[in-house]
Amino acid sequence: MNWILKTIDKMKPTFSKGGKLGWLHSTFDAFETFAAVPATTTSGRVHIKDAVDIKRVMIVVVMALMPAFCFGMWNTGDQHSLAFGLQWGFWMKVWYGFYRILPLILVSYIVGLGIEFAVAQVRGHEVNEGYLVTGFIIPLIMPIDVPLWVLGLAVAFAVIFGKEIFGGTGMNIWNPALLARAFVFFAYPSTITGDSVWVGGLGKHADQVIDGFSGATPLAQVADGVAGAPDFLQMFIGNIPGSVGETSTIAILLGAIVLIWTGVASWKIMVSCVAGALAVGFLANGLAEPGTFAAYPAVKHLVMGGFAFGAVFMATDPVSSAQTETGKWIYGFLIGAMCVILRLFNPGYREGMMLAILLMNTMAPLIDWCVVRKNIRRREKRAVAK
Amino acid sequence: METIRLHKGLDLHLKGEAQKKVLQTLVPEVVSVKPSDFRNMVPKLLVAEGDAVKAGQLLFQDKKRPQIGFSSPVSGKVKAIVRGEKRKLLAVEIAADKETQYVQFEPLAISKASRQEIQKVLLESGLWAGIIQRPYGIIANPEDTPKAIVISAFNSAPLAADVNFTMKNEADAIQIAVDALAKFTSGKVYVNLNAENGSGSPLNLLRNVEKTMFKGPHPAGNVGVQINHLCPIGKGEIVWTVQPHILAAMGKLLSKGICDVTRLVAVTGPRAVNPGYVKCVPGVAVKDLKAIAGAVDTEDIYGQPTGVRYVSGNPLNGENVGEDGSLGFYDDSVTFLAEGNYREIFGWAKIFRPKKFSMSKSYFSWLCPKKQYKADTNVNGGERAFIVSDVYGKVLPMDIYPVYLLKAILAEDIEKMEQFGIYEVIGEDFALCEYVDPSKIEIQKIIDKGIDLMLKEMA
Fold first, then answer.
1. How distant is the Cα of A317 from the closest Cα of chain B, in angstroms?
2. How far is A303 from chain B (nearest CA, A)?
3. ipTM over 0.90
4. Is A379 touching B (CB cutoff 8 A)?
5. How far lies B445's CA from each of A293, B152, B311, B398, in Å?
């Protein structure tokens, strides 16, 4: 492995200030620190430091995304073969999924990291690792047939206006991945809504689709009162049409276990998010007339659409979520509640999770402000009481 | 006795803990007294090169508060006045006598002595500098009357000196000091003991004090954390704190009339071959302590040659004094660490990294909770913005929102800093926050900056 260090040492003068490619030193630095933890030593009164760093935190999230990603690959192939009546085996489905998802990931990383590197270069900063996760999440929350140029535009919008103008990872207000999705939704709605975008090739080759295959997501089916929506178990497993990585609740739960066990994401947000959805769901169940969407079992909301993925991977984004522990309970609960409210009362667009999280991202500082305000008041009172 | 349980915090297990035996009494050849040991102090020199001094004689005083002076721990001749850039006074070096001559002060009968008499002796002997006030962690103002005096009878930091051992024979002296200091406060004198072994502590024998047990991981022994739970500091309030070994010196000063700051110093660290205690005065060369501990420059955890870091204090709150440095005025331990100036290929991506400890469960050090680590000075990553929000609160058992306070300091917003608790903290309280921070932000430096800002604003 020493050849890696030797290569770095050999290239370093070229990329250092004053070298031929000195203007690329941020980029070089990013690759260097990626290949090896730097030899920096502590300089303050704290002489030792924990082994964890942001790269480790981010790689854990990427690992946690793996089950959803792998299932998404298979499911992309499965849905395609169902739609066109193909008798594909397991590996053929996975191969199709891989072949369709790979371009999405490449576009996401090339455009996103390209901008990140360029901005770091201009500012003279180190490159942040945040996009390693964002860039992986974006393809997972897109429909498989999203045009690559739309995806590229969305990524650019999300990285520039979602992150860089605020100062980069750690400073952003909204979850950048969701911002990319929101961009597509508002700018190119036809590529992310309707019944024909969720299954690979459905839009282009509509004439070859076998009879009776609709391609609608279960959420749309249920909301529109169409018969034949899948049952709870099928939605829990996830072999249904939907965004690439969002369909399988069980794969997402595997990721959630990793995130909670390692402490990388807040279990409080996940739990309160579920609680919020169930609270509104049960309330609606109690008040609704039978047969309407509002009467649809509250528990099933948890396995439909983007709820699980959003609750586990996006509501818990440490930067755009509430910062205080009390605030996290409130923040998560309101996301869950808002998601179901949007689903029930917004016939134009049933998938409420994206908007619920973005809305609560906006509100998170306000929630924190209230929590912190209470702390300040308590401390002031403490002084008066003495 | 009340027991306060703290759940937040982290106990680090490091190699090189001092064995409970006195290795040697170190008679130094040269002792250096450094103004930099004293926060927010501008020194005015009182001696010249070649002057003969006695132990307890003032070497320099604070320009801003001339009544506060700083004395020599030994007798001898002023060997050198070390100055840095812009003639800044760095140290006064004293060639020490073999036999220490003390300035003789009037011994006091504490029960009858007045506050003024006690104060006079403490100021004249230089031991007043041992009284630290909160807020800000600076030397106390002789004119103030603090609302309480708080003494932590244990140090929970990794590799720190064991107060039960170092103060074993000092209970009487500490009693005298505590009785004397009680005359300075309108409130109580608090003594806080470790719930694990506090009943056997020499400070458990103290009378006329309010004793409290603290149970929990580090920083339970930090006096700032204890104050936050016993008598939190609001705007305009003052609490004094004194370390046990300084109390012992004060007790001797008041009863015998000599300023003897000799203490038992824990010589520790993963680099110390023979960690234990050394009897010496502050200002002795760390090199001498290193020789006693048998520390040598060898290799880092991955077998590459590397140097030693000389820390006066403990690994979470100490000064890097360098090879030619000396033991700080307030410190009762030195730590020898390996410099971690190595690169580790894909270190952050390794599934197992058994030689490194992490509080995060993304590594597997939680599988062996009792393992002692050879911690080194590698930062283990690059500096980033605040990203992970809940990690700091997990190791700060205070009613304070750490990130909000830190951001208020970065924004230089004095009002917010007050609201978020700048009066209650000093750098050492945030040491663990800095240790566990995945963003590798130098949090102690930010807190120090905040305190400097406050001092400037209040001046």
1. 9
2. 28
3. yes
4. yes
5. 57, 24, 17, 19
